[in-house]
Amino acid sequence: MDLRFTADELAFRDELRAFFRDNLPGDIRERMRLGHPPTKDDTVTWQRILNRRNWAAYSWPKEHGGPGWTSIQKMIFLQENQMAPALVRRPGLERSHSPHRKMMERRRARVYSKVLVEANKKIC
User: Fold this and answer.
1) In whole angstroms, how large is the CA radius of gyration of the chain?
2) Is 54 in contact with 66 (CB distance < 8 Å)?
């Protein structure tokens, strides 16, 4: 099995590197490099830049407004995004106030409270 990137994948990687080099604002790059959290303005600015290329929703298919990338292309995008370093937006979990995340937190709290109650009964 050959795990090396194909010529097309290497060209895609080079395209991404050039994009990050030419489009990622220097102040955002420096904040990310130093490990500081992005500001709201950083997030909005970077999302707008990605939106110009239909890359903001990198996991979406082309017919829904995304780039329609393969799994390998998504992985290359995330790697190059980290190397830039740029903001990472995880689809579906990017905001702590998203309905899905709140639902999962409530579910986790219910399950953990039941587990703790049962564990306390067994200990006592």
Assistant:
1) 20
2) yes
